[in-house]
Task: structure prediction
Amino acid sequence: MQALYAQLLVGLINGSFYALLSLGLAVIFGMLNIINFAHGALYMMGAFCAYFLLNLTGLGYWPALIIAPIIVGIFGMILERTMLQWLTGLDHLYGLLLTFGIALIVQGVFQNYFGSSGLPYAIPDELKGGMNLGFMFLPVYRGWVVVFSLVVCFATWFLIERTRLGAYLRAATENPTLVRAFGINVPRMITLTYGLGVGLAALAGVLSAPINQVRPLMGADLIIVVFAVVVIGGMGSIMGSIITGFALGVIEGLTKYFYPEASNTVVFVLMVLVLLVKPTGLTGRAA
Amino acid sequence: MTALTDDTLPITPRAMRDEMIVFVIMALALAAVPWTGIYPFFVMQALCFALLACAFNLLIGYGGLLSFGHAMFLGTAGYCSAHALKVWGLPPELGILVGTAAAAALGVVTGFISIRRQGIYFSMITLALSQLLYFIYLQTPFTHGEDGIQGIPQGHLFGFIDLSKPTTLYYVVLVGFLAGFLLIYRTINSPFGEVLKSIRENEQRAISLGYKTDHYKLLAYILSGTLAGFAGSLKVFVAQNASLTDVHWSMSGEIVLMTLVGGLGTVFGPVVGAFVIIAMQQYLAGFGQWVTVIQGVIFVSCVLLFRRGLVGELAHLLRRSL
Result:
């Protein structure tokens, strides 16, 4: 049973990354009509930011948790202003191609300087060690990742679904021209939205740095799984993205315990099943 | 929403004549390659990728479907051909048949699944499916995991054409490429191709005219996958190995890049794009990962600056269909 709980925990952690990343993808898709292929690369940049902050400036995990998403978010906003905004009105597919190119550039540059091996990033002192819960041993850091991701996910949900700013955002997703007519600066909102989505990816990167090591290609395979998550969940609802993300992480964890050979593929197989049964995705509207 | 290809010139006799002239020039130029001293291995490899890109282009350029998983056809056909040639000891013609049939079967299965969603979702689904296949090939024993299938015998085509001679192999690959190219050309100019283009331009309207668009899209997908598989089978004879790189997502990205550079929805664009990208990889091989960076830069500049691609821009300039 110990092993089962351990795999469940790993599943929950992967689920937090799926949730944070697919949440960002959904928010970006809503506003920009772009599937951000660079999401995995920006997640990786978040982890590298934390690594640089520690090794160049001596700033540890806690400042990195705030600074790295801001730095990567600003980088994302520059990308949006200089490149993505020119795609307005073009077919969605160009957004995918452009961001795929950006991902290749970012990952290629990092691979040139850091190779493909992982760089270590230590768990902060406050979160070292573990707790004995009676039925299992819980490493504190892993517990923290799950709880903190949940908090961030729900904060994002609250921001978008329950605040005035979020209302503008949802309105601009539905009808940007009308929202502009009310005097709201929609282009700036689009830039900020992209920054927010990218910041969430970078935050996931910082969270994963002590667990998964910092590698240039850490986001490359992850993003494809997240795409499958997005296809399963649909991008229609924020809550849907969060729940699907965590649920698929848990299912993947269970698979690792019961049938490890399929742990790499289970999410894709589930995607196929969902497409056969309910082609629009679990929460999605017809695209 | 603007369509992917903005120059949709109607098929006129003049356009057909132009395209046939260019085709004959291309065929003659390629046939002359063994006498020019150009490294035939490079051209053979480029021809395989050119056919692959043409097959991909059939789907995106004429059906409006961006498949981000076309490497799965390349890899599947490659593995199946390689296995048939090496382990079963089949002659080359049957080896090619096994690989192409496997790709066709894969096309039926994955097409049935991915055609259920459109646009951006279709791309994500094909990408996820190819990743699923990648992991399967990583684990099944017959692919030999990271090593791949190596040292594949080339054999004698139809019992008397010796494929181990580079020049002979070159002409066999060339004939295969030209046959595949003509089949695609015939398809896009057939009534079937016209319906496909109408689906790309406005699917709702095509449906309201009574076309079962899903059937057309599925057929185009299967045809595209089968031809991509044929290219993969040919490539086995050139490279004499089948490995995981052929199924990896980065390979799918390269196929997209070749077509984008040449021009989406142009007849000759994918061929030009394939030669450009393969040549680039050849000359920049010593630069390591910078090749990836350069590919990314090409992607970005193609999307932002010249969406028509090399051939598309030329055709636009000359006001011709190429």
